[in-house]
Write a structure and sequence with these properties.
Blueprint: E1 3-7, E2 13-16, E3 20-24, E4 42-50, E5 55-61, E6 65-72, E7 74-79, E8 84-88, E9 91-96, E10 101-107, E11 114-121, E12 131-136, E13 147-151, E14 159-160, E15 166-172, E16 177-181, E17 187-195, E18 198-200, E19 203-205, E20 210-214, E21 218-223, E22 228-236
Parallel strand pairs: 13-14
Antiparallel strand pairs: 1-20, 2-3, 3-4, 4-11, 5-10, 6-9, 6-11, 7-8, 7-10, 9-12, 13-15, 15-22, 16-21, 17-20, 17-22, 18-19, 18-21
């Protein structure tokens, strides 16, 4: 029998710093909820909006896989490896922080906010050499299908990380139905609704709701609104 937990959008942690408006699905910074520390190795799921021209100053990370998924606008990244890149909607960025990395993230635009997801996954290898990668995907390729955007395999579709995790994104017409098969035994799946309304295993989820499901090998997904968008994160429940 599958186990599940639902995190409604309005129950997330929230921090508005003026230049940064951030919602936290799991405990982060000033938001602490002992019941929402992580979902398996999925440690952070932050839904961030950064004001025009503003951003995060240089700060450190180590031994974490950090994935950024821009939703609107352009995000400029600089790091201690000498990387300077701009990521936009359709791009996926990954950093393996490993032994340690410093980076900054700024809204490249002076006239509009940038919206992006920042996701942290606990790695299965510690103290690796720091690594940066980004790719641009064709958003049209996720229409009425689940487009793979991340995996453990450098030769597979999407970016890769040091963890047995697979991420997929989909954008669906109303009434579209599909089934997701969990990629690895003992993995669980955390689904996050980016836009619209989606029924997952018969449970109605609305925009920015999250649902974790484990002890199952298949999950049913049905789009309840036109243009519904979803992020599916398939992760080990224990590292």
């Amino acid at each position: 029998m599958a186990n599940s937990v639902i995190h409604k959008a309005e129950t997330r942690g929230h921090a508005n710093h003026g230049w940064l408006n951030s919602y936290h699905s799991f405990s982060f910074a000033g938001y602490y909820n002992p019941d929402r520390m992580h979902f398996g190795v999925l440690r952070v799921l932050n839904d961030d909006q950064v004001s025009a021209g503003m951003g995060f100053g240089t700060h450190p990370h180590d031994n974490m896989e950090i994935i950024s998924i821009p939703l609107e606008g352009d995000l400029e990244h600089k790091d201690s490896m000498g990387t300077t890149e701009v990521i936009k909607h359709g791009d996926i960025q990954v950093m393996s922080a490993g032994t340690g990395i410093y980076h900054s993230e700024y809204n490249k635009n002076k006239d509009q906010p940038v919206k992006f997801l920042q996701i942290w996954v606990i790695p299965n290898k510690k103290n690796v050499a720091p690594r940066y990668d980004q790719i641009s995907l064709n958003v049209a390729d996720r229409h009425n299908t689940l487009q793979q955007v991340l995996s453990p395999d450098p030769d597979d579709a999407g970016v890769w990380i040091y963890q047995d995790a697979w991420f997929h994104m989909g954008e669906f017409d109303k009434g579209f139905k599909t089934e997701y098969t969990v990629r690895k035994k003992n993995n669980g799946v955390y689904l996050f609704v980016l836009k619209g309304d989606v029924a997952v295993n018969g449970e109605l989820l609305n925009q920015r709701d999250g649902m974790g499901i484990w002890n199952t090998d298949k999950i049913s997904i049905e789009s309840m609104s036109q243009g519904a968008e979803i992020l599916v994160m398939d992760v080990p429940m224990m590292n």
